[in-house]
Amino acid sequence: MTRIATSMLLIGGLVGLAAAGAAGAAEASAMPTDIPGIVVRFNSDMLATESGTRTLYRRLKSAAERVCPMETNTRLVNPRVQECRQEAVTAAVNKIHNQRLAELHAAANSKSG
Known about the structure:
Layout: E1 3-10, E2 23-26, E3 37-43, H1 50-67, H2 79-96, H3 99-112
Antiparallel strand pairs: 1-2, 1-3
Helix pairs in contact: 1-2, 1-3
C-alpha cells in the first residue's frame, strides 16, 4: 500500500498570533522547515469508502485545529481562527484531489455556513 501525505501549512499572520494564519497544502517533502505544519498521513484506499473518507476528513479538521489554535484565554473561536481552519481544510482537500472527499467537504460547509 502506498502512503500519501498532505501537510497543512501556516503561511500568514491572519489572527495576529505567531501560531495562526492562512493555511495551504504541500507535500511533506516540499514543506519548508520554518513554517509550522502538520502532516496528515492516510492510505489512498481509505478514499474508496465513505467511512474511510469521513475518517480522513476528521483527521484534516483536527490538524487544522492544531495549526490554527484558539487564544488560550477564551472558549469562543475567533472568526479569523475559523477562517484559518476552513482554509487549511480546503487546501488539504484540494491537494488530495478526491471527488468523495470534496463532496464531503462541500456538504460540511453548506451545513455550517
